[in-house]
Each structure stands twice: as structure tokens, then as C-alpha cells.
Amino acid sequence: MTDELDLLKRDWQKNEANLPKLSYSEIHKMIWKKSSSIVKWILIISILEFVLPQLLYLLPPMKDGIAFYENIGISKYLLVASIISYVVAIYFIFQFYKRFKEISVLEDARNLMKKIIKTRRTVKHWIIFSLSSIMVTIIIMVIGVFLSDNIADAFPHLREGLQNISPEKLRLTLMLSIGGFGSFLVLFMGGVYFLLYGLLLRKLKKNYRELKQLEI
Amino acid sequence: MNKELEHKFVTELQDNQNIVHKVCTLYTNDKDSHKDLFQEITIQLWKAYPKFRGEAKFSTWMYRVALNTAITLYRKSKRRIATQDYESVIFKIKADEYDETEEQQLKLMYKAVRQLGDIDKALVFMYLEDKNYTEIAETLGITEVNARVKMNRIKTKLRTILNP
């Protein structure tokens, strides 16, 4: 076998003459092209993950929601929860930035992969945190509805239409729909996230495992 | 200053472009992907160039960046149309230089190497480039002993591919 590999080595070195030759201007043009490396994709996806949930609050239904929270008496809990989540988000953004900066193509292959995986793990923890905080918000809302004395008051503009519905039925419907919608949102966002990263990092993880296995 | 750096970089890369082409040949299957990977390696080299202080040879420094890009950073593009026997375009095996069995053997070897995984290819590539085990180990971030063990495993693997 060694002979065959050496045969290949001789041929490999001989074949240099047959390699393509790029001109100065062809190479010069390339240095200004945009990179499409996975590190760049991780950066783009992560920024989206930090920004998108914040945009949800700009939607009109969410603004109406604030009045609704006040009416069912949970707004102060939600205020505390959102302050906590902003503090945590700032912490995560800082951590992400620090790890992202540490990624260098000049590292050895194993370290480079390790740092990329570590950076992604920061984002993963952020996602888990933000999905659980959505879950907590949903639970607070469901409890708020459950404990509220007169649920129809929460919808001042719908009061007339709601008069025919029994408060118990309204309460149950509301709890089920908030819970159902919340669970769907969390599962959907979680699913998209894990699918996206799973596909993006499949190759990298496989290669990293291979290098790591060597050390055992 | 920047123009000067740019000029220096492009000239050095142009002189050493063979290294990048060889990496691309091993890691891609068609001309478009070859070009894609070449471009990504060029971008990564250029981004890292300000940190290159000449402590190593430019070519030595290139191996690490090029392999890191191929193994870790590069996302294979969707267009993976199997083109006509790509390796024969790059590695034109001249029939008159070899006897038939040797030519046949080489063809099979190239084919077998292409079937290896990314890490294995990196080891074979550095072996073919006459790098020693210390360099191979340092580039991949493994110990020298493990690099040797891995290389032996690859040889066994190639043998199985060649003689199923």
C-alpha cells in the first residue's frame, strides 16, 4: 500500500503543471467578494434570533395585549419578566460577541471547530432561554385568566358580544386558546431553529467528532 | 498602505495558487464548486492576511487557512451536478508516461482518495504535499502519534476501497 501512496505522491507532484492558473486580476476580483462561510451564516442567523422576537412587540395585536394584561392584572409580573429578559439578552449578546471574535481561521482545525460549536452553543442557550420565557409568559397569562374575577372586563370593546357567553365558558376558551397558541409558537420556533442549525453544522460536527475520537 | 498590502497579497497568492487549487481538487467534484471553494479560501486568506507577519513562509501559512476553509468553513453549494470525470480534467494522466497498469492503479487511487471523509482527505493531502507528521498534527490539532495512527487507518481504508 505504501508503494501505491508513494506512486500517487509522485504523480501528484508531477501534475502541478496541469492545475488551472488564475491571473492577477482574477484573484484581485475575488478578494472583494462576499464570504459565504458558516461562521457568517451563524452571525446572520443569530442576529435575526436576537432581533425578531423584539419585533413581535411592534405588532398591533401585541399592543392591544398590553391593555389586556392590565385588565387581567398581570402587567406588573410581565414587566418584571421583560426587564429580566432584557438583562439576560444583553448578557447573551455580549457572550456571543466575545465568542464570535475568538473564531480565527488561523487556529488548528480542531480548535476552530470547537470555537464555532461553543459560539453556537451560546445562541442555543439563548434560544432555550427565550423559548422558556415565552412559555412562562403564556403560563402567567393562563393563570391570570384563571384568577380573574370578571374575564369579560378584559375586552371592553367586545363586552356586548360577550354578554351571551357564560363567564366559565369564556374563561376556558381563553385559557385553551392562549395555551394552544403559545405551545404552537414555542414548538414552531424551536423546530425551525434546530432544523436550521442542524443542517448548517452537520458537516462540522461530524468532522469535529472524528478529530475528537482520535484523542480517546 | 492598503493598496500596497493588496498588491503584495495578490502577488503572493498568485505565485502560490497551486496549493489552493490542489485543495479544491480534493474537496470538490465539479468546476463550479472548485471555483466557489477557491474564492472562499481567497477571501479567508485575505481576511487573515493582516495577521500574517511573515513568521512562517506564506505557503506554510496558506495550508492551514486553505484546509480550515475546506474542512470547516465552506458550505458546499447546492449545484452538485456530476460532471464528466472531473479528475481527468485536472490530473491528465498521460498514457505515454506510464504503463497501463500504473495508469490504471493511479486512476483507482484518485478515485479512492475522493471517497474519503474530509479529515482523512486533509491527512492524505498533507502527506502528498510531503509534510511531516509534526506539521500534519499541528494543522489538525491532534498529537503526532494520533496523526500517524490515523494515517495508518487511512491506508487500510484505501486498501479496502481498492480491493473490495
Automatic annotation (TrEMBL), chain A:
It comes from the Bacteria. Keywords: Membrane, Transmembrane, Transmembrane helix. The chain crosses the membrane at residues 38-57, 77-94, 126-147, 174-200. This is Uncharacterized protein. It comes from Maribacter cobaltidurans. The lineage of its organism: Bacteria, Pseudomonadati, Bacteroidota, Flavobacteriia, Flavobacteriales.
From TrEMBL, chain B:
Residues 14-80 form the RNA polymerase sigma-70 region domain. The keyword Iron-sulfur does not apply. Pfam families: Sigma70_r2, Sigma70_r4_2. SUPFAM superfamilies: Sigma2 domain of RNA polymerase sigma factors, Sigma3 and sigma4 domains of RNA polymerase sigma factors. Residues 109-158 form the RNA polymerase sigma factor 70 region 4 type domain. InterPro entries: RNA_pol_sigma-70-like, RNA_pol_sigma-70_dom, RNA_pol_sigma70_r2, RNA_pol_sigma70_r4_t2, RNA_pol_sigma_r2, RNA_pol_sigma_r3/r4-like, WH-like_DNA-bd_sf. The keyword Transcription applies. It comes from the Bacteria. Keywords: Sigma factor, Transcription, Transcription regulation. Gene3D superfamilies: 1.10.1740.10, Winged helix-like DNA-binding domain superfamily/Winged helix DNA-binding domain (1.10.10.10). PANTHER family: RNA POLYMERASE ECF-TYPE SIGMA FACTO, RNA POLYMERASE ECF-TYPE SIGMA FACTOR. Belongs to the sigma-70 factor family. ECF subfamily. This is Sigma-70 family RNA polymerase sigma factor.
